[in-house]
Design goal:
It contains 14 helices and no strands.
Length: 275
């Protein structure tokens, strides 16, 4: 179970669902060979990235998440490193069997970004948040390149990027104690809590306008509009209000967990809206 937990199964499930949804939108589910290679490579590369993150966040996790496999002592650093390298190699090899473009993405973009995030970018204000958002959005780009239809993925790339960067900044609000103890310069630490909430409010406003555009441009149907308004935008606005009126680690944790699950509602909106 430890070997699975360090991969962060919910995050991997989110990535798998993103691949399946993108393949559905692009009419690629019938191509089982490409779909299987996509799923395997995405699981391996993202899983390896999560292991790297746990290795470099060991001291922070001793404060913020002491029950994770490494700080709890259930897995050693040496075991984690071997696991990480094996996963990266497996993902890169699988991507090479799709096409040259997917091999290039995994080898020269995804892998360096994931390693760079844990080693450098995560501790930089906003840069780390942008990298995480880019990685999730890149999942849709990766599928588009694999099937030779990148333009069909543009709305999904935009929505995934916007939703993820909001959640990541809320997560930084939750993790302030551990980040501060390790000298990380995240937005809440550099700007302060109030300024960060103002920025989250700004991003949320932009996102709510942007996620309505696919319906307005007739990319998705009315089912998409209904699910986005009720299942995405209303929870986002509610979370924003709660964070303003009752800020604190407990509230920030509740909001970031809600956002982690709520992205599945957004994916469902796209699924239903593309039919």
């Amino acid at each position: 179970m430890t070997w699975l937990l360090i991969l962060r199964p919910l995050n991997l499930f989110q990535a798998v669902l993103a691949v399946w949804l993108a393949a559905f939108v692009i009419n690629g589910l019938a191509d089982l060979r490409t779909l299987t290679l996509l799923l395997f490579s995405v699981i391996c590369i993202n899983g390896a990235g999560n292991v790297v993150n746990d290795i470099y966040d060991l001291e922070i996790d001793r404060v913020n998440r002491p029950n994770r496999p490494l700080p709890s002592g259930k897995m050693s650093i040496a075991q984690a490193r071997i696991y990480m390298i094996s996963l990266f190699m497996a993902g890169i090899v699988a991507s090479a069997f799709i096409n040259l473009q997917t091999f290039f993405i995994t080898t020269f973009i995804a892998t360096p970004l994931l390693v760079g995030y844990s080693v450098w970018f995560k501790r930089m204000p906003l840069i780390g948040n942008l990298v995480v958002a880019i990685m999730l959005a890149m999942t849709f780009a990766y599928v588009g390149v694999a099937y030779g239809n990148f333009p069909a993925m543009v709305p999904l790339i935009g929505l995934a990027f916007g939703f993820t960067i909001i959640r990541e900044i809320v997560k930084d609000l939750e993790d302030q104690a551990g980040d501060l103890s390790q000298g990380a310069r995240t937005l809440p630490i550099v700007w302060g809590e109030s300024a960060t909430l103002v920025f989250i409010s700004f991003l949320t406003g932009i996102f709510i306008i942007a996620d309505l555009l696919p319906y307005g441009l007739h990319v998705y149907n009315s089912a998409y509009l209904l699910f986005v308004i009720v299942g995405v935008n209303f929870p986002l606005l509610s979370a924003l209000i709660f964070m303003w009126f009752k800020p604190g680690k407990t509230m920030f944790r509740r909001v970031q967990l809600m956002l982690k699950y709520d992205i599945f509602v957004g994916l469902l909106a796209i699924l239903l809206g593309s039919r």
